[in-house]
Amino acid sequence: MGASTLLLTGNIDTIAQMSCNPAIGGQAKGQMVREIDALGGEMAINTDLTAIQFRLLNESKGPAVRSPRAQCDKKAYQFRLKHTLELQKNLQIFQATVTGLIYKNGRVVGCQTNLDIEFMGHTVVVTTGTFLRGLMHVGQNKNEGGRLGDFSAKTLSASLIEAGIELQRLKTGTPPRLLGRSINFTGLQEQKGDAKPTLFAFHDTRDPEDLFHVEQTGERRLGWSPGSEQVSCWMTYTTPASEKIVRDNLHKSAMYSGEIEGIGPRYCPSIEDKFVRFADKPRHLLFLEPEGRSTNEYYINGLSTSLPFDVQLDLVHSIPGLEQAVLLRPAYAVEYDFAPPTQLFPSLESRKAENLFLAGQINGTSGYEEAAAQGLIAGVNAVLKVRGEAPLIIQRHEGYIGVLIDDLVTKGTIEPYRMFTSRAEHRLLFNHGSAELRLIEHSKPHKLLSDSRISNISHKLSRVHYWQNYLENTRSGAGIWAEGIRRDKEIAILPSELNTETPEIREEVLYRVIYAGYLDRELRQVEKLKHVEKIRIPLEINYAAIPGMRRESALKLAQFRPQNLGQASRISGVNPADISILMIQIAAQRRAAEQS
Ligand SMILES: Cc1cc2nc3c(=O)[nH]c(=O)nc-3n(C[C@H](O)[C@H](O)[C@H](O)COP(=O)(O)OP(=O)(O)OC[C@H]3O[C@@H](n4cnc5c(N)ncnc54)[C@H](O)[C@@H]3O)c2cc1C
């Protein structure tokens, strides 16, 4: 966006280091990565160029819920992104730990660092991940740090509290890492990548130079393309012996012995949780995933735990293929401070301190994609704030990013929040192929993409509209094209000129034609809801004084201070009857203001 920006990080070498497994995408997250790409973020292209395995999940289900997933080379991902940042104009990178924020008249104006150097800025975006008072647990063993081998940001919490920001504790965990040559792969089920990889970035609308700008400057590797030379993952299962080891030692697990006060991720449970909460399941599936091409380190997906190290060893050795496995790093749990996100405006600016934005795991989310989406929106809005322009708010019907931020700021979260397709009421509109078409109304005015890419997207959109219109209104021999396609789901017979369009255009046209009935119904629903999103709630409204409103609703509304009626209706504990009462009150206040 052309803004002069400083990135402060405790360790430059760990920029974009993936704390857990180096996998990007998956259910709903894959679509979100495509949305990030559509808004100029780096995650998609960085994944495509450093991934070692690609798989399209839910391939047998409807296109709206098909999600790309990729296993990346952990170090390549990190180094390529660091290099990309180094080449970014207007961005300065500096290694220092932020120890506190500097406030003036209720506004943040800069930050202090451990080097006693102060940095001043118009806006500040805080993205501390799991580092705020991070405390790691391996059984009863505790070490300060946001991640194994990393520091703990200890004093910054106090500085946030000073601004009136409430902090709470959450926890997350990660499995052990193994030495690949100590694994016996004989008898384990191999999982190969897709022969035809589904990439994350919209390669068809970017300039070829965009694609290879960092890792292949100068001489390019002939014949290499994203998705070449994929590697395999392997599947294995826990055994009854594994369950016995876990159950016998539950009292030693940091989580089960009450050592950890923070709440953990329900959707990414530890192995302790799996055996206790899903007691009827005889075994649990585990994936052995390589962490890169130039390392022999393997990640055991599904075996996150906070049991002591000796128990972890026994547990790993009870699993087929891992009888002799050598552990390179132990599993551990980490607990950290987060700031309940209902303290934010939808722009991700703090309600407590002006010009301060929060993004990522500090807002109670879990996952790289959720963090990247928020970082992007907070960054854009930090610039718009400096310019005195209206913030970028992605609406719930426009994409998963809209759902994510709206959920966070209106409902909050008491456990690490991760995105699912089921969280999005309009998910049919969010097929991954349409992200840049859906979001062009935002990427264009804010200049988040190059002019040439915007022009390519506009062209793509006009071709999609042309073909949609053509198929819905033109007769082939037997009848209208679109009706034939919907009836027979026969997409082999298409107008020959449509077959000359790019696969991306063809796929989007067919999605829109085949599911036209469902999509139209969804769009009508969106239109119906749009008007409540436009009804603004006066800032000075006194909920406690609204006649007839339930006390619980009044308290919740006063606490969350929604900006419009749509947001108010999504706050848990506020019922539809109270929304109607609120609507009447807003109308009455507006009439009174007009008359006076
Ligand atoms: C043990 C563990 C297991 C996880 N498991 C999963 C998982 O299975 N699936 C999943 O999707 N997600 C998982 N996550 C979460 C995932 O790593 C995070 O959601 C994501 O990385 C958060 O991104 P972020 O940008 O908010 O923070 P991070 O990626 O944590 O980055 C924070 C950055 O801020 C820097 N920093 C922090 N404080 C300061 C300071 N005061 N001054 C300067 N720099 C500072 C750090 O050096 C770091 O570079 C796990 C995380 C951990 C730690």
What does this structure look like?
With 596 residues, the protein is an alpha+beta fold. Among the domains are: 5-171 and 336-441, FAD/NAD(P)-binding domain (3-Layer(bba) Sandwich), CATH 3.50.50; 450-523, no CATH class; 535-595, GidA associated domain, C-terminal subdomain (DNA polymerase, domain 1), CATH 1.10.150. Helices cover 35% and strands 17% of the residues. It contains 19 helices and 22 strands. The model has no long low-confidence stretch (mean pLDDT 92). Bound molecules: flavin-adenine dinucleotide (FAD). The site of flavin-adenine dinucleotide has 29 residues, from strand 1, strand 12 and helix 9.
Summarize the structure.
This protein has 596 residues and is of the alpha+beta class. 35% of the residues lie in helices and 17% in strands. The strands form 7 sheets. Strands 14-15-16-17-13-18 form a 6-stranded antiparallel sheet, with no helix packed on it. The chain has a 4-stranded antiparallel sheet with strand order 11-10-19-12, with no helix packed on it. The protein has a 3-stranded antiparallel sheet with strand order 2-4-3.
Bound molecules: flavin-adenine dinucleotide
Per CATH, the class of the domain at 5-171 and 336-441 reads Alpha Beta
- Helix percent reads 25-40%
CATH topology call of the domain at 5-171 and 336-441: FAD/NAD(P)-binding domain
The geometry reads as globular
Q: Roughly how many Å apart are the termini?
A: 43 Å
Give the beta-strand count.
22
The name of the CATH architecture of the domain at 5-171 and 336-441 is: 3-Layer(bba) Sandwich
| Category by helix and strand content | alpha+beta
Assess the beta-strand content as a share of residues: 15-25%
Outline the biggest β-sheet: 6 strands, antiparallel
* Rg over alpha carbons: 25 Å
CATH homologous superfamily designation of the domain at 5-171 and 336-441: FAD/NAD(P)-binding domain
Strand order of the largest sheet: 14-15-16-17-13-18
Indicate the mean pLDDT.
92
